[in-house]
UniProtKB/TrEMBL annotation:
Organism superkingdom: Bacteria
Keywords: Iron, Iron-sulfur, Metal-binding
PROSITE patterns with a match to the protein in the record: 4FE4S_MOW_BIS_MGD
Span of domain 4Fe-4S Mo/W bis-MGD-type: 2-57
Protein name: Anaerobic selenocysteine-containing dehydrogenase
Pfam families assigned: Molybdop_Fe4S4, Molybdopterin
Length: 266
């Protein structure tokens, strides 16, 4: 007997709402759940969830290597989770006591494109508590500017854009139709309400064909475009001068011999 269980896909940060078909405790199909806030569509990875869950190559238990590296075979031996956790904790403690926490480097996969999203905060908390400054992240090209530019500029991470209620949507090197379907759906709702859309991308992605303006910049020239837009904003005075003076380092970027934002010499 097949049962349909509502839920959401955990294979990336988008968290698309899903309807999961289960037959005798076996996941056989996953499809979008339109009643869910993020369930309007699903990517290929979400549809392939049954293959991932029931793959014969899926690793379900911890294994201990029993032969030296370089041997013909690793000689994997299945151990319990208690053994794996205890042995890992003991070895980390020994290295820290002998050589300091800095002797340990932690490698973490991307929380954006894997199920690690639910755990990343706890993993980072553990690493900080351990005391090692050595963290190696595997992430997407689009991820660093998203996380760090917001933190450096505003002091904290920013929420997702309110595409549905925007007057103009600017997608700069961002392709949510392939990477974040829930946001792509929100863009569609915003466009139906009349929002203009500008796409900055060297590739003719699907959203570029739908945009009012597509700027196919040459790779490596994004900074020149950004500086040009900044200059235009300054020359046309389309910025909040009081905010810039009080809350940014903009005034410190103007030489005393040059004219200030207001046109006066400071």
């Amino acid at each position: 007997m097949t049962t349909t269980i509502p839920g959401y896909c955990t294979l990336c940060r988008s968290r698309c709402g899903t309807l999961n078909e289960v037959d005798r405790e076996m996941l056989i199909a996953v499809r979008p759940d339109p009643s869910h806030p993020t369930g309007q569509a699903m990517c290929m990875k979400g549809h392939a969830a049954p293959e991932i869950v029931h793959s014969p190559h899926r690793q379900l238990y911890p294994l201990r290597r029993t032969t030296p590296k370089g041997s013909a075979g690793p000689g994997w031996q299945r151990i319990t989770w208690e053994e794996a956790l205890s042995e890992t904790a003991r070895r980390l403690g020994e290295i820290k006591a002998e050589s300091g926490a800095e002797a340990v480097a932690f490698a973490i996969t991307s929380p954006s494109g894997t199920p690690l999203s639910d755990s990343i905060d706890w993993i980072e908390r553990f690493i900080r508590h351990f005391g090692s400054p050595n963290i190696c992240f595997a992430t997407e090209i689009c991820n660093w500017h998203k996380d760090f530019a917001h933190a450096f500029t505003f002091g904290c991470a920013m929420p997702t854009a309110d595409y549905e209620n925007a007057d103009t949507i600017l997608l700069w090197g961002h392709n949510p139709a392939n990477t974040w379907l829930a946001q792509a759906h929100a863009i569609g709702r915003g466009r139906k309400k009349g929002a203009a859309m500008v796409v900055v991308d060297p590739r003719p992605i699907a959203l570029a064909h739908q945009a009012d303006v597509w700027l196919p910049v040459r790779p490596g020239t994004d900074a020149a475009l950004a500086l040009g837009l900044i200059r235009m904003l300054i020359e046309t005075r389309r910025y909040d001068e009081d905010f810039v003076r009080r809350w940014t380092n903009g005034p410190f970027l103007v030489r005393s011999s040059a004219r200030s934002f207001t046109g006066r010499r400071d």
